[in-house]
Design a protein that fits this description.
By secondary structure, the protein is mostly helical. Helices cover 67% and strands 4% of the residues.
């Protein structure tokens, strides 16, 4: 048979693009795509949280009473902490990473942790000082005496360190790391719309306006980064989303106002900046824990609307809630934004310069 009469061979090309196309939906150059990874990670977290919570309730380790004591809080926070560790370990195995890769790798983690703790205490002390100077916070009789001072200091210190590990682990570690490797402006904008819609449908009270304010505050800067095709724009798009999300989850606390929700989102952004500047979330963990510890234990104010039992000093808000914080506590005061700006300046000026001196590179901002 001549070559001209042989049947034409058609290459089996159609199957290959289809298989590659399906793989492209779920995986990219960095492995599992960021959106699927976040959905899977948080799905596993809530599954593990339900399982661990069931075990704790069955063992009578937690109760239905919402007592804001260090013992009750440690038991309650242990549930998401263990669930987070389980989900993080499984996601690290799936993505072929180490848990430390999720913004926890650092050469001097304890130094960053201690430095953050000092900054958190200083920031809260500055805020309390401004409130007292303006007459928006009044001190009463001491709440503790004798050995109870050290006992509650240690108990609340452990409690808030656990709280900080959970919240920073969920927001500045896995979420920030994962979104930063696969987020652009349009996906970030879609996430913001989703967060605002969820807050509108589910959150109670005026705190929801703080979510809207956080979403609006990052819109123009992130759009400009997108237009400029900035090298690190994905990190800041991720910081926009994770910080707004951080503020949104606080709307479910009792006693929150919109200023407190917006302040929580702004604080979340400062923690994201610290991750960018220092390369890990350890400073953020220390700052977060000490801020809450000073607020609840040392000064005896409400923390995100929750008053602690067993505090060193006794204080009460006075005057306009937007300045005193009202039932929200100092975080609900507009003056909290001043303290947060001071922390941001500390991260950029002190720690940024320190890291630049160590690496020989310009400080990141």
């Amino acid at each position: 048979m001549s070559a001209s009469l042989q049947p034409q061979q058609t290459p089996p090309a159609p199957d290959a693009p289809q298989s590659r196309g399906l793989e492209w939906v779920f995986a990219g150059k960095d492995g599992l795509r960021a959106g699927w990874a976040v959905l899977l990670a948080y799905g596993l977290f809530y599954l593990f949280r339900m399982v661990v919570g069931t075990v704790f309730v069955t063992a009578n380790l937690v109760s239905d009473q919402n007592a804001y004591t260090p013992g009750a809080m440690m038991a309650q926070e242990a549930i998401p902490f263990l669930a987070m560790l389980g989900a993080g370990a499984l996601m690290a195995a799936i993505e072929q990473r180490r848990i430390l890769d999720f913004n926890l790798a650092a050469t001097r983690p304890w130094i960053h942790l201690a430095s953050g703790a000092g900054a958190g205490m200083a920031g809260m002390a500055a805020l309390i000082g401004m409130l007292c100077a303006g007459g928006w916070l009044r001190f009463g009789a001491p709440g503790l005496a004798g050995a109870a001072i050290l006992r509650f200091a240690a108990l609340w210190g452990c409690t808030f360190l656990l709280v900080a590990c959970v919240e920073e682990g969920l927001f500045r570690c896995y979420l920030q790391f994962t979104l930063a490797r696969g987020l652009n402006f349009w996906w970030a904008l879609a996430a913001q719309i989703g967060l605002c819609a969820y807050a509108f449908l589910n959150a109670d009270g005026a705190g929801v306006y703080g979510v809207y304010a956080a979403a609006a505050a990052g819109l123009l800067p992130c759009l400009l980064l997108h237009k400029m095709r900035a090298a690190r724009s994905a990190f800041w798009q991720a910081a926009w989303v994770s910080s707004t999300f951080f503020g949104m989850v606080h709307t479910f606390n009792g006693g929150e106002n919109w200023a407190g929700i917006f302040a929580a989102a702004c604080m979340g952004f400062v923690f994201c900046v610290s991750v960018q500047v220092m390369g890990s979330a350890w400073w953020a963990i220390g700052c977060h824990a000490a801020w809450d510890w000073a607020e609840s234990y040392v000064f005896g104010t409400a923390d995100s609307g929750l008053p602690a039992q067993g505090h060193l000093l006794t204080t009460a808000p006075a005057g306009n809630p937007l300045l005193s914080g009202g039932t929200d506590g100092p975080e609900g005061s507009l003056l909290a934004l001043v303290a947060i700006l001071l922390l941001l300046g500390l991260v950029l000026l002190v720690h940024g310069r320190s890291r630049a001196a160590q690496t020989g590179a310009p400080a990141k901002g």
